[in-house]
Amino acid sequence: MNNTSRRNFLLKTSIATATSSLGIGCSTTYHTNLITNLKPVIISTWSFGKPANELALQTLQNGGSALDAVEQGIRLVESSGNTSVGLSGKPNAAGVPQLDACIMNGPGHSAGSVAGIEGVVHPITAARLVMEKTPHVMLVGRGARWFSEQQGLKIVDSAQDEKRYAAWLAKKKNDPQNKAKKPDNHDTVTLIVLDNNGDI
User: Fold this and answer.
1) What SS3 string covers 26-59?
2) Is 188 a catalytic residue?
């Protein structure tokens, strides 16, 4: 390929790229207008997220922020007793439910999270408090639990963990299909809220 044909190739490629970008821009504008007309938007994962969506919507309708809606929706799932998230979720190899939670706030681009936290009924609230009351983004393990206790969050007795672990072991032993490998058997939930102000 000589210099002239390279120049022509680059010129044509640049024009094609610019044209493609214009098309994408038009498409994005259309989708932005569509989203603007459909607020609020609430999305969660899995079937057990539906009640979380409903509570999140109710929270928004009662004047709460997108952040309030996410926290309340996830709190509902954490305390629902299902075996996916919260203290009734799957334990670690030692039989202890260690929980994680993360919350993010579009305005201000802030985030807070906890990981490996034990005995805290609502890790999502602990994560929000990390975001709002500390200079940190994440607290883990005993430090996260201590912080939660200092903030007055509900903590449960670990004696309950032994019963849950025994039940989990029995169920796991009697499960020849190994449900842990199935895509619908997981230990997390996501809840995203776009409120009427466009905040996420």
Assistant:
1) HHHHHHHHHHHCCCCEEEECCHHHHHHHHHHHHH
2) yes
Supply the pTM of this predicted model: 0.75
User: Residues 13, 17, 29, 188: which is the catalytic one?
Assistant: 188
pLDDT tens digits in sequence order for the chain, 200 residues long: 555 565 555 445 444 434 333 343 434 444 455 555 688 999 998 888 899 999 999 999 999 999 999 999 999 999 988 777 888 887 887 778 899 999 999 999 999 999 999 999 999 999 999 999 999 999 999 999 999 999 999 998 766 666 767 776 777 777 656 555 565 566 689 999 999 989 99
Q: 187 near 85, Cβ under 8 Å?
A: yes
Q: Which residues of 140-165 are buried (b: 16+ CB within 10 A; e: fewer)?
A: eeeebbebbeeeebeeeeeeebeebb
